[in-house]
Design goal:
Elements lengths: L8 H9 L5 E3 L2 E7 L3 H18 L4 E5 L2 E6 L9 H22 L1
Antiparallel strand pairs: 1-2, 2-4, 3-4
InterPro entries: PCD_sf, Pterin_deHydtase
GO molecular function: 4-alpha-hydroxytetrahydrobiopterin dehydratase activity
Family: Belongs to the pterin-4-alpha-carbinolamine dehydratase family.
Length: 104
């Protein structure tokens, strides 16, 4: 399967309009999620890891107590691609589901 090509700055900006929690920084799109507990943050990482394996597209992840930061770029394409925007949407859904299940 051919990897997608890097998006232009305008395409990235347009893609981020639907992803308000994400920002372009240092050659990647980034989002930090504050989980309700350390274990909830670890569970979010586990769920994201499962999606990453399915997509064969793996984010950079930084865990600092309850704060989990995701950085997405397609390293072998040399920039941000549609895969990164797709994975960002998946991470948003997982983060929302985790927060909703914790509120229940």
């Amino acid at each position: 399967m051919a990897r997608p090509t890097p998006l232009s700055t305008d395409e990235i900006t347009e893609g981020l309009r639907g992803l308000p929690a994400w920002a372009l920084a240092d050659g990647a799109i980034r989002r930090t999620v504050t989980a309700p507990s350390f274990l909830a943050g670890i569970e979010l990482v586990r769920r994201v890891a499962a999606v990453a394996e399915e997509m064969d597209h793996h984010p950079d992840i930084d865990i600092r107590w309850r704060r989990v930061t995701f950085a997405l770029s397609t390293h072998d394409a040399g920039g941000i691609t549609v895969l990164d925007l797709e994975q960002a949407r998946a991470i948003d859904g997982l983060a929302a589901a985790l927060t909703a299940s914790d509120d229940a």
